[in-house]
Amino acid sequence: MATRLQPDCNPVGQNPGPGVVGFPIPDPTGTAVARVPGRDSFWNTRPDPCSTLITAVKVKLPKCRTARNRTNLLYTLNNVHVSSVTHGGRHYAPKVAGDHSASLEGRKAVGKWKEGRGAFENAYDHQHPIDAMLGIAMFDAKRPESYTCSRDCLEPPSTLLREIFPWVEAEQAALAARRDQHGKRAEDYALIQFLKLLLFLRRVLLQDAAILFTDFPNSFIFSIAPFDSSVFRDWASSASSVVERAESCAREQFENIPNYLVGTLRGIMVNQQIELYQQHQLLRRDLLTHKPLEEPQTKSRKRKCKAVTEDILPSFPTSSLHASISPLHVSATTTNQRIPEPLGIIPAIPMQPTPSLSTTINADCSAMPHVPDPLNIIPAPSLLAFHPGIDPPVPGIGDQSQQLDATRNAAMDLLRQRYGTARVDKHEWEWVKPKPNLPAEPLPVYKFQTPPTLREYWDEWTMGRNGYLSIHELNEGWEARWCRNQSGLKTEKSCYKKLYELIDLLRSRPNWTLDLVWRFLNDRFPIPTQGIPELKTARSFITYLQKKDGSGMNAVISAADTYP
């Protein structure tokens, strides 16, 4: 609602001093100062840029309905550029933070809400009562881990899935084609999520229908396609047994959770002991096969070196290994499993010198109960025999590690063939899984060099600098994965991309070349230029191009229209 100006306020255009378009300016000599010391009637005036204040400066603007639109309108009228956000979205921030188990104080802090009681919980904190929802579904609300949806194990046939909402795939393909044709302007996130929801709902619909079919096979819905087909009836007839088996397995696993965790922890500790033993034997083998001194001069010198070698090569006693190293038997089924004993203290492996290298170490396979192990611990061999003059065997080091090394070496060789050995070796590489169900891939480690000139920015994007791969090659080979979801790398990447878009747009103009683009930028936008903030450095010029309203980019394009 528009508010009229008070008598002691002057609209813009009638006040000789500086003012802000759309805001009333207080008159310090007004009568309100004398009436109420310390308070002017100006503070009772609510600025509304859609009221007569805007009419006073003869600006035609659409009707504003929200405070946010009014504020953004004032920014536009007064040439104020705001690109930072000081708090999270009023509804988005507390909801997403709460869905990921953030505390109430944390949800308030992320949005900079005031401490104490207020309208936050009633207006903005829309959290689902998880415990009440579990309770009404007849699960234990105090133990959320007991919840399980057994019917989710039913996988409907693909022919049935395609008969419900059969147009979803076609719409997804059309949306993807439109996005490829028009770019980011064609993004429709609401439609994308809606189509995904339909794919999820048709699967849930078939699962629920299969459960209902076992209890109410003569219901009217089962006389309608696709529920009247033989494919659905054959699949639904076996659904009850699958669901019952899943429920019994889930119930048994939940009842055995404490003992299961105990067995898992014991398996982890035993695996650490096995790894320690393997490392010790590797060190012992390397030192035994290496001569202590080349061409010793006397026998006493040999005896002395042998004594030193024995001192620094301790070994494990048979009793310790018998108690600590046993193969772990992993059972794939969840029924008829032996529950492990309560976790005891695994004896430490003392470092004592062995009396002889011909000691035979025998690990009893029956000394340890069966342990359900989700970590896929590789079992140790049950018999390790050492003989003099022969390198001791190393348990657990075999074809698997060699195959892994061969795979990684082959992947690095392909990268060297594609980009060159010198450029690939210039980077540090990390093996990272892009997704849990995909194998690991080598990701390059790269830090932006932020050069001082625009031309060097361009070279780093297109050709690479100082022997590193170019940013274009990184994007082409690893897309956004090489940034590792780090905000700093993504911010720098957007700066480089904005400059690339400008130069690519300029050189695509008729009769424009890359040399002409650089000459134009040096003539019209010389860097550095004192007194002009956007031309102070190359980075400030890129920030000028990144203005959200596009004014920076439009100014450069307009200058190119009149050049040379």
TrEMBL record:
InterPro entries: Ndc10_dom2_sf, NDC10_II, TF_GCR1-like. Residues 118-232 form the Ndc10 domain. GO terms for molecular function: DNA binding. It comes from the Eukaryota. It holds the Pfam family GCR1_C. Residues 450-505 form the Transcription activator GCR1-like domain. This is Transcription activator GCR1-like domain-containing protein. It comes from Lentinula raphanica. The lineage of its organism: Eukaryota, Fungi, Dikarya, Basidiomycota, Agaricomycotina.
